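Exercise: predict the structure of this protein bound to thiamine diphosphate.
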Amino acid sequence: MKHVLESVESQFEMFQILNEDGKIVNKDDMPDLSDEELKELMRRMVYTRILDQRSIALNRQGRLGFYAPTAGQEASQLGSQFALEKEDFILPGYRDVPQLIWQGLPLYQAFLFSRGHFHGNQMPEGVNALSPQIIIGAQYVQTAGVALGIKKRGRKAVAVTYTGDGGTSQGDFYEGINFAGAYKAPALFFVQNNYFAISVPVEKQTNAKTLAQKAVAAGIEGIQVDGMDVLAVYAVTKHSRDRAINGEGPTLIETLTYRYGPHTMAGDDPTRYRTEDLDNEWEKKDPLVRFRTFLEEKGIWSEEEENKVIEEAKDEIKQAIKKADEYPKQKVTDFIENMFEELPNNLQEQMEEYKEKESK
Ligand SMILES: Cc1ncc(C[n+]2csc(CCOP(=O)(O)OP(=O)(O)O)c2C)c(N)n1
Ligand SMILES: [Mg+2]
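Solution:
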């Protein structure tokens, strides 16, 4: 019986291409990206780090509402998004606003989302995405459905979703991956394992050695990847997307990452549940640092280039927050109007009532 029991414990080794020192450790899997594409990836990571810093500052000034910091998770978020196409459909979690922005959500709308304004949830024409999910894990079930829809229509696209380590404890997580597996639906299920669900460490979340191995029970492909290595995340996403489009089914992708900031800006204090040693350990793995080293050694990145991106980001953020400030305040009728295609009677009555009030 012993060998049978042992065979159940599948090995899920972390996939990596670029190590902490910015050296390629896995030439065979190096993705086929041009110098321009490599620079674009760096540009997006730098831009997103600045956006995070500015968003935190704007939140403290009372100029933004809900905000979940992203610093540390750039390679995981942007490396995956970079492998997607316009026709793919994204179902993000609350921390995944950067993927939406790079998929085409204008920055001022991301700011309106943060403020709870309905226009922040209205994806522009051609951006296939839902607004960020707040209910942990719910996007996994929705993704299985969207992926099945894509398959039934015969489209060459995938549905892509993101949750955290904590999200893998939800029933929706298992339902989503199982259903997509059963229908070989073209879905990519990301688990961004940043080791904490607010203050709860992943060891208290599950007895599983990896989160990627949860794919086994659903009969789908599962892989654990260094989430601080943008090249590895990109390569895995590209590979999984190709498989999904070829009818080979969904993939569960666990990215090992870390959020440097607090859980959200609503009063979380990470020093109460994370040690300085742990923070330091992950600072050494910083996705921007190692990719910068790699690009500089290749001779295609410089401090001047980076400063240009930083200035550009700051400028665009300034413009976007101004545009968000100037956007018409939302009215009660906006809420009602955006709830149903056809209003039920009781809401119709409220609509009339508020139209009357708002007209004064
Ligand atoms: C169904 C549900 N339960 C509880 C919460 C409250 N909650 C918000 S974030 C969070 C932790 C999620 O952690 P994780 O999935 O690891 O994602 P991370 O925030 O680390 O990116 C919890 C429990 C919620 N939003 N939805
Ligand atoms: Mg987490």
